[in-house]
Amino acid sequence: MRYTISNESIKAEIESFGAELKSLKKGDREYMWCADPKFWNRTSPVLFPFVGALNNGVYRTKGKEYKMGQHGFARDNEFELLEQKSDEITFVFKSNEETLAEYPYEFELRIAYKLEGSSIKVNWKVINTGNETMPFAIGAHPAFNITLDENGTQNGTFVKFDTSKELEMRKFEDPVALDEMHYMQPDKDGYIALDEHSFDNGVFIVENDQAHEVSLAGKDKKPFVTLKFDAPLFGVWSPVKKNAPFVCIEPWFGRADVKGFDGELKDRDFEQSVDAGKIFEKEYSITVD
User: Fold this and answer.
1) Residues 6 or more apart from 235 whose CB is under 8 A from it?
2) How many domains does the chain have?
């Protein structure tokens, strides 16, 4: 079921399946990707309890080996409406017999959306309802419309960071990360220009708190969407070699395995944890112009 929240500036639509943000409008302008399967059939999935893929699709915890698909299972489950007001809404998804069979931890995942001016704040609460420490990862994957140039390429779109320092990015070999880095230098104002080959090698993975504000801008270099977050790493992604009319900005608390990793779940890079009976809570915002 799809729900709508609005204020004097913007309107958002959220689907209860996956608690996924499907639409964000200011006036007549739609900022969210339409999930056209020609390029990518999602809009803004929530990644939980994994971000990214596992080596050989398996992980190890509590003395056993489990199978898990890329990005976990929250995005493919129905959430329950917990509360709704005119400008905010909260959904919840709880562990059950099916989830426990592939992820042996009890939890409650709450996802809330709240409008403030021209911003939507997205709040995550991971509640450990079990009796042991729970390792997990959580991340965002929102896709934003961009305007392609006259040749149907991403030339003319810019990504802006809140830093002009050289960015160290982890190399990626679909579907896992590599134990190698490459580097990208924004201009003095923090901009990197996209072109038709920007995503030939997959996602940009920027780790270790190098930036906490990322925007998309058109050829005039005026940002039209900005994400602010305190996540330790994030991704910037668009489908490989497709020049798709959208770009994702993805705050992450976790990421894909490094190729060859065969350790325990708790030892995955950037893995989070929450003690029994405790709550992990994080928030990011999307501001549109």
Assistant:
1) 203, 204, 205, 206, 248, 249, 250, 252, 255
2) 1
What are the tens digits of pLDDT across the range 66-93?
999 999 999 999 999 999 999 999 999 9
| CA–CA gap between residue 167 and residue 182 (Å, rounded) | 8
CATH number at residue 236: 2.70.98.10
Enclosing domain of residue 96? 2-288
Decide if 4 contacts 115 (C-beta within 8 A).
no
User: Is the full-model pTM beyond 0.90?
Assistant: yes
Cβ-based burial of 79 (10 A; exposed 0-12, middle 13-18, buried ≥19) = buried
In this structure, are residues 9 and 118 in contact, taking their beta carbons and an 8 Å threshold?
yes
**Using CA atoms, how far apart are residues 168 and 181, in angstroms rounded to an integer?**
7
Distance CA 268, CA 283 (A): 22
Angle at 40 between CA 269 and CA 1, to 5 degrees: 95
Query: Widest CA span of the chain, in angstroms?
Result: 57
SS3 content of the chain, % helix, strand, coil (to 5): 5, 50, 45
pLDDT for 7-35, tens place per residue? 999 999 999 999 999 999 999 999 999 99
